[in-house]
Give the backbone structure.
Amino acid sequence: TMKGVNEPVFSNLLDALTLKVTNFILDGAKSRMTDREFLEKEIQRWKYSPHRIMQIKGALYYEGEHDVLKRKRTMIGADGKLEVVENLPNNRVVNNQYAKLVNQKANYLFGQPFAVSTENDAYSECLKKVFNKRFMKTLKNSGKAAYNGGICWLYPYYTENGEFSFRLFPGYEILPFWKDSEHTILDFAIRLYLVIGYDGTMPKVIEKVEVYDLDGVHKFILKGGSTLVPDDSGGPVDCPHVTVTDTAGKVTGFNWSRIPLIPLKSNEQETPLLKKVKSLQDGINIMMSDFENNMQEDARNTILVLKNYDGENLGEFRRNLATFGAVKVRYDGDTKGGVETLEVTVNAENYKAILEIFKKAMIENAMGYDAKDDRLSGNPNQMNIQSMYSDIDIDANDTETEYQAAFEDILWFVNAHLANTGQGNFENETVDIIFNRDILINESEAIDNCSKSLAVLSLETVIGQHPWVDDPQQEMERLEKQKQKEQEELEKQYNPFQNQRTDPNQGNQGGGDVDDEE
């Protein structure tokens, strides 16, 4: 499963890097694009592509960094064009329904620990050690990253303590090169990420690039945002996938026979969730911001009509109004002075109605569910609950299909790790990964159905469907112990021989006749 390397390959020549890029390069009559030029051009094309920008925006929107935060108030100027106005209320309200939907969808499918089913007990124990609570947390976080970016990546590696683990890369950091149009077989991949470094004593952002292929990991710096140069600041430029240091200090490198990057997709198109609902989320933010703006446009900052004003200019009028809350006007005989406002009526019901429309449309387009649905009022039955969950359940089927395919790759690396560390060869073992969806149920109705099913179904099957049981096998063991304890208590309460004495010197104390011959 790994290719041994006698000595780690350390090369400072980028052109010597062997990459399978022949499918992407056209041969020219007199010239040929080098590997360096190809990588640089592909990075530049992908770096500012609409798809990657939407992936980055998905992560930003999840954290609350929405476009409305950069919004400015404008007006029509003298030339008929819009101009920025600085002296009007400009509230920037973020009502993050998008983050709520991402959490909802990720926790629906990955919130509960998944179950691993295999007939090999030794294999099951090994998988429990790998798929521990930390892996469960990584998998749940991958669900959020997959919805934000349409795709994210798991990187299998060994920690400094030699523990086999997985690291999560967001979709906007990885540029994959696929062998097939279905995006199932990875040829090689580029990782672009940012680190904070120093130029002397001044901090600066450094763009680092890592190329993953079957020969290892190759490290570079994207200088000037367009030129690749070898990165030897943190060790060798070309490194194997895995390095092992023995007690004598000798370092041996090994490479996986597959690219150590596992794609986790939310859907087969790798479409970020934000792309479906961004306009609706922006509409919710704008409507709430406009409502607050209109409510703040009172007599001190709204449109005023002046009559016979006793002052020099409008700036002085606004300053006096804002400072003292009063203004001085002139009254000359028949010419009356005064101040009137152009009243702008704010109808809160209009805003409430359009916000309700936007929120419902956002839930439907994101294929989530409304936890405040009218069908949950009163005493909802199971059919109403399932109807409410129909959209998110359909979308979760797509995501689960992609993750089930990804688990085949995950298990390949896990099996290789177990074989390489001498824990056993489980390559041909069958494993079923079962995702436990977090869905509301009517417990009373479910328990009643379980009770009625005892006459036609086995106890183990009924226990597996009971809403209070998480581990059916453990519950069966508890029931068996409970029966044994009850049997022991029953035997203690009724024992017809417990008052009889068996000592022959005591005689017959039981009150009955005893046969002498016996």
Residues 371 and 388 are 9 Å apart (CA to CA). The chain is about 40% helix and 20% strand. Confidence is low (pLDDT under 50) at residues 4-31. The radius of gyration is 35 Å.
